[in-house]
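Regression test attached.
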Amino acid sequence: MNGRRGLSAVASAIVCVCAAGAAFGGSWDERVFTSHLDFDAIAAAGPSALPALIERGRVLFKAKFTTEDGAGRPKATQAIIPTRRKIGVNPAFTRTSGPDSNSCFGCHNDPIEGGSGDVVANAFVSEGFESAQFDNTDPSFSSERHTIALTGAGLVELLGREMTADLRATRADAVAQARTSGAEVRADLVSKGVRFGFLVAHPDGVVDLDSVEGVDADLIVRPFSRKGVFTSLRQFTINALNAHHGMEAVERFGARWTGSHDFDESGVPDAVTAGDVSALVAFQATLPPPTVKADLPEDWRVAAATGAKQFASLGCTSCHIPALPLKSLVFTDPAPYDMAGTLRAGEVRKPIVIDLSQQPFAGRLAKNDQGEWLVPLFGDLKRHLIVDDQVNALGNELQAQRFVERDVFLTPRLWGVGSTAPYGHRGDFRMLDEIIAAHGGEARFSRDAYLALDKPTRDAVVAFLRSLVIEAP
Amino acid sequence: MRSLALVACFSFALAPAFADEARPRPLGDAPIFHEEAEAAGIDSVYDGPWEFFVGGGGAAFDCDGSGFPSVFLAGGKNRAKLYVNKSKAGGPLKFEEKPIDLGDPRLLDNVIGAYPIDIDGGGHMDLFVLRVGMNLLLKGGPDCSFTLANKEWGFDGDPGWTTSFAAEWEKGQKFPTFAIGHYVDRNAPGSPWGTCEDNSLYRPQPGDKPDYSVRTPLAPGFCALSMLFTDWNRSGTPSLRVSNDRQYYRGGEEQMWRIEPGKTPRLYGRADGWRHVSIFGMGIAEGDIDGSGYPQYALTSMGDTKLQQLDPDEGGRGEFPVYRDIAGELGATAHIPYAGGDKRPSTGWHSEFADFTNAGLLDLFISKGNLAQMPDFADYDPSNLLIGQWNGKFAEAGDLAGIDGKRTGRGALIADFNLDGMLDILQIDRGSNVALFRNLGALNDGGDPLPMGNWTEIRLVQPNPNRNAVGAHIAVKTGTRTQVRTIEIGGGDASGHSGWVHVGLGTAERAEIRVQWPDGEWSYPYRVFADQFVVLDRAKPQAEYWYPGR
């Protein structure tokens, strides 16, 4: 930790600490980090610091990290666990195994900052352990992934947190009942109307998880990435900073977990502080959710209304659930279910609290009769098998990812789908009709029903989906 | 942020103290412990005359099916006691004494130590109790009950001055084989010098119930204070390491016996490559600190602690048991007190590798304590907590962690007593109540302790015989690293524990676990998430999770 100088790059509410490296050279300085944010100071400042924090996050999201910021990871891999290269040095950029970008915005730019990206911005995802460096797009080495829009991500994370709490409470109740009764207890895992199978608790405290579906065995709903393997925006951010930019966050790659302040030997110690990560989290968490396109032409409006009904009657909404209820819009950073290597609540004096109900977009969210906010994500935050023997175009990956099998994916959230073509986890499909037709596995019935419709009705479904857009705030 | 404050505190607040000591400090976390034996309800003193200068052990094991480890504590001249764990998950430690009714209460006097082992495969943990006199086989029953089973299991008690024990399931056997280590034969002419008793091997006799009616001597005996069956060369057939106290032997040394099923035990000798090492051997710990698959051994003594590693040049890949000492190069000699200013040699007893910070690296705990007013050895002799570092070395943190202080340590039980994912320490002190150190988390410059790294705790299950899979190797893979733990009964200073096998995972959120079962067969690759208790049943392809009931 470098000495604090009380610099304020954005606003006086945010306390900064100076960055290591060359001295500030002038107003043309190429560096992004001429100062770092202090987490505790931000948290202590409370709501007054949030606008500056979010703006700092926006700046960092668009920034092009430089060598003097610590970008590049000469001696480390893209792995989520600090992993050193066995031999050799990573080049500054490698399109496939990374670092493959020097800006978040490089991929998340369509149609707005934090949005999706074109196929040209696809990422090549690998675990980064044994085959850390590869210059090959063959799926034997990595899984190619289309950029996911981050709009509404704060709401999504909050949904994941509440669902995790529900599932874990169910588990705890079942374990307690089984111990008390001395008999096995079967408990259905249901949260916000989404069913995740069931578990069986035994009187000795053992829990049989064989019938748990669509969520990890620890019952943490991980709502981010195509496979649903990231718990929080914070975890995603730390992973992405390292994988794509070679910017290593202290809370994952610092001395506590590696014995080094410069694990990747970039020459810049402690390149990304917890406060810096929080700025990125705050920016992403407050990105407005997608919306429904305003001022539709009359023919589109009518078709979209018909399409919405068809979408439901086809059974699409069994996974692409139009809206999930959310009890609270209070987003705390750190998140409650992150593990070591991503900042945890017990590692800070107090969290940063972002009340999303104070964001302008909150006024657009409907409420149900229980006063819960309705998040119109068209998703279920659950993983599903999406291929079968006959329909397997989406089964084009060869690698499982973090225990998730290769042909199982998180239900894509369709809010904003009208703005995020091309479609599918790899962006293989140019048209909505094509991606619908590619649904197999658990979605096969709905897909077949869709294909059985006449052309105008199918067009109406497309009209409905095209009306779900990301618009500039 | 607290972690940054931690870095700062190391840089400034603690720098002067370390400068005096000129010793490396941990670069990562150091744990902070809270001593709470009395508050937890434990009042047990190991004490007594000469016979009880050594020993001072106990056993930690789940005796009531709660998953929480209870403790059986030797008392020497005082009566041994059983304390049932009543703690709540993550909370302060709480124990309640439960009397053991063996018919004759004197059987619980003169106890040196104990090891938990399910001898008959009955599903309740039994105890092998080391004594001055007749040793005891206590058959475990429901709700932490025990009955004396020496007669039922044909065991004569191998009377003597028993100071060490180890057990394994030899291939093809329904029941375990015992190795019993003795100290001085007090009745021999010239005692105590040069009068070490022979040790013993008890193999189960054929039948459907344990029968230990046949003793095989392990001679010569050199006053064995610690024994351990260890698969040192990954042959699948463990050998018996014996650490001996040179104080009383003549012509003795550290020993290793080749124990092959159905064959007479045979000592490894010079022709095998076994080298002469003579120490005041008091405790053996095994740990694979470098992930090589070939374990290292920490041997406590008076003065230097040895840290032995298979010599890559002369030992090959286990062709020959040639070991070299790497304690010095790894900063793990622990030869004098690291704090307090007393520069006389230390007296080390129990040693055990464990990950106290959940960093994913093995640390080394060594209990320390003057034998009994020995003026040539340190009087203030705090126990060591050598924290494993990412450069492969160790850094002392006993004082940072709060386990220093003027104590007379002997045996120790390292277990997660409150099932919070962090390892605690129960140190048995001679002449005073035990010290019960609850692990609170990572040191944080006076602030609330920080949460540590991720962890997993593992229980193996297989059908009888050997339902607890003693001898199994557990390989835990996170990223490119693999950590190995071995289920063992033996080692340390008359102290052993069973139950959850703790592995720190650092920042890994997931781990893949493979088990090499005692018969050599490899398991399914079990995929587990961090911060969970997992049950790996040999008959099931997926891990089951377990949750405490309180």
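Expected vs. actual: identical. The longest strand of chain B covers residues 160-168.
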